[in-house]
Amino acid sequence: xxxxxxxxxxxxxxxxxxxxxxxxxxxxxxxxxxxxxxxxxxxxxxxxxxxxxxxxxxxxxxxxxxxxxxxxxxxxxxxxxxxxxxxxxxxxxxxxxxxxxxxxxxxxxxxxxxxxxxxxxxxxxxxxxxxxxxxxxxxxxxxxxxxxxxxxxxxxxxxxxxxxxxxxxxxxxxxxxxxxxxxxxxxxxxxxxxxxxxxxxxxxxxxxxxxxxxxxxxxxxxxxxxxxxxxx
Length: 232
Hints:
Strand order of the largest sheet: 1-3-5-7-8-10-12-14-15
Low-confidence stretches: none
Helix content: under 10%
Shape: globular
Largest sheet: 9 strands, mixed
Structural class: mainly beta
Number of helices: 3
């Protein structure tokens, strides 16, 4: 890559990758540093894409604030390694639509405390999604889980047309899940959803609107109980 193109890429805050049908990894590990400055990444309609951020042992810090993924039929991982996510401290918005091979968005519940600016999560029309935050406990559990508390900073959650979704997340043992900033939860056509956070007691002091199948429930109702009751 010549210096002029290299310099141009490092100055550009936004990248759209669309209709690249032979691409397997969106950003390969040997190119991660070059794209660490990106603020907006959109990836769509890439038939063979399996992974967005290729596994990398380096602890880079990324400026990415907005991630949009759509029409990626073979996508299996956004991040394969939980350790990778620690570099995405500026991530605010995640939008995912029609990624039918994806089973979870985040690989591990311990990352809930590693994204301090996360504002919104929207997941729609993904046939195999079973949980938004996975349960791949293959490393030492976070200090917050050991203290029987998980703090998740998200403000806006929208889950629509997810036929395999069982819950938003689960804990390895009973704990308190605090979502102190959460203002909106909207759940539509997620008919296999058993509860919101398995083995978690949900605390949402600022919840303003809570919709299940377009029914607006009282914001003081327990989120887990409403879903359990509605999807009996």
